[in-house]
């Protein structure tokens, strides 16, 4: 009997031991799962790895660190409008947001009333006739259209002509399309316009797409109807689709209204223009824009967008229509505000010996640097020693070196203070 009980006891103890080992093993298994999850690195796709680095992310981080440290930084390095959206546009959206019709999915290609408003806007502002049914695409902000168009129009290895200096997001769409960039240098001697005669025939013949942007970011230069006529002829000769980024289309100074690319004869035969509400109506956070022009390109954009998403919230589209068709006094007042800031800032720079040209359009100033210092070094110096943030020209391309970009996006007093802080560094006591 004792032998039997001893056997059962040993068996019970063995089971207890096995269950204990099993529980411990399970705990270790869960522990190692957590460790693996923390250490495992899921690889990105080759496409994502090949995207250009966001140069300005480091600038934003540097400015943020200074502000966290308690520094009074005058941030002139970004292009974020500082004024509110006009009241009548906000109220139009608020009313529309209560409409149950807009609580459903929007039509894939947007509401036709907005396309009609866009056509009316172009007829009124530029004398250009637009077919709202076939020549308008509604966009989730201008950036979306600029990035999507290379995906619509070029194949891997195709050549895309890009302004240098220029808006870096052009590079992103080209990288996603696995196309190849050929830079068009913009120089002060040529009014920061590309010189088409300087582009080798072999490059022009291989090009499928070209980006332009006037009024220009970052240089503040503007284009003429004659230049756009030259562009149409060049594009037609070489079979190049033109994308004109008209983001600053409302902002021209000294009584000169910026020219639309579509005002040139034959422009719709070769390209499109992208217009955003962000700058004209201070609607940067609303993410609404449109493309107008060549029917085939518009169709390509809408086809791609059909696969990506349905259209914008209907209340935003109604507010956008109200912006285009409503009173434009707010636009006139905004341009006057930027021009006053430009004049105050350029005058203050002259007082410290910085000979800087006044921009013709946009809300940026493109400022030449003293010899012997890079734009990145200069920007770091201003941030560290004057607590003024500017954008290094190299961030806009190789030919941006030797300049910094300044946003006129704070009040005149702060702009003058920024110039005074820079002046105290003694960098411009002698002409350069």
UniProtKB/TrEMBL annotation:
Q: Which cofactor does it need?
A: pyridoxal 5'-phosphate
Concerning InterPro entries, the annotation shows: Aminotransferase_I/II_large (IPR004839), LL-DAP_aminotransferase (IPR050881), PyrdxlP-dep_Trfase (IPR015424), PyrdxlP-dep_Trfase_major (IPR015421), PyrdxlP-dep_Trfase_small (IPR015422)
Q: Where are the transmembrane segments?
A: none
Q: Molecular function (GO) terms listed?
A: pyridoxal phosphate binding; transaminase activity
Q: Which Pfam families match?
A: Aminotran_1_2 (PF00155)
Record's superkingdom?
Bacteria
| Domain Aminotransferase class I/classII large positions | 72-422
Q: PANTHER family attached here?
A: AMINO ACID AMINOTRANSFERASE, L-GLUTAMINE--4-(METHYLSULFANYL)-2-OXOBUTANOATE AMINOTRANSFERASE
Q: Which NCBIfam families match?
A: PRK08068.1
Q: What is this protein called?
A: Diaminopimelate aminotransferase
Source organism of the structure: Geobacillus thermopakistaniensis (strain MAS1)
Q: What is the lineage of its organism?
A: Bacteria, Bacillati, Bacillota, Bacilli, Bacillales
